[in-house]
Write a structure and sequence with these properties.
The chain is built from eleven helices and eleven strands. It is an alpha/beta fold. The chain has two domains: 123 residues, 3-Layer(aba) Sandwich (Rossmann fold); 151 residues, Isopropylmalate Dehydrogenase (3-Layer(aba) Sandwich). Strand 5 and strand 6 form a beta hairpin.
Length: 316
Amino acid sequence: MSSPPPKGEKYRRLLEACRDLPPVATAVAHPCDAISLESAVEAQRLGLIRPLLFGPEARVRRTAAAAGIDISGLPITDTPHSHASAEAAVAAVRCGEAAALMKGSLHTDELMGAVVAREGGLRTARRISHCYVMDVPGHPAPLIISDAAVNIAPTLAEKADIVQNAIELAQALHFPEVRVAILSATESVNPKIPGTIEAAALCKMADRGQITGGLIDGPLALDNAISAEAAATKGIRSPVAGRANVLIVPDLEAGNMLAKSLSFLAGADAAGIVLGARVPIILTSRADSLMTHLASCAVAVLVDAAGRGALAAAVG
């Protein structure tokens, strides 16, 4: 049995997968801290993105000078405050100036407020949802976890979109096979646990072609979703149990706790992306490492490439 890849190796593979793709013009909203600016500059150096900065220009330049970051070649659109930065960055996407959006040092709800605005936002017919692409030490492959940052208590219809967004992300990341586990506290359907009912419904929706592109099973507890031994012990036979690479959580609280448990107890890195909008949205935390920021940029590049490929196929 081969040993799992070392920490960070899965993210390095993501960066390698972008090597032959063109840099994506990316509107960076309110990059007023060192990690936001360093990430944008380093992602540009690696050929991942072409950053367009939106923020209070004097503050951005002071931050860069204090951190020793050279932003002399980057265009800056001056804005008075974080809300205006978010609105200007979203406007740049709407007019075609940028093909991706990146969170800087503003709060997530400020950025997403501009994204979901009914007038001037980036909504589509698909529900917007968040995914973590997690590099977990000791685990052989990346794990996608959704939704841990946008949808608080999604309905069944919203969960169907969350699952579809996650499947399409896995396809964009070139997962050889997409295996989706709908998580709950148990693998049995229990009317007293609403999440198990919705998990069963999602599986039937997949059977009927309402969700496509992946193998789906649920409800599954976390242990029998990712551990073949646990699945075998409980007698669960499915192509997903014990082998899931996409984990769909019942609500935001569960997803947030799962992702942060992996990060802070298991040393995992968590690249963040928001899907279902007109363009991929790079959503990171100020506490994330530079590698995590770069991995999030790489994920957005691959999602953009997949989207352009689908559009070309449709036109063709």
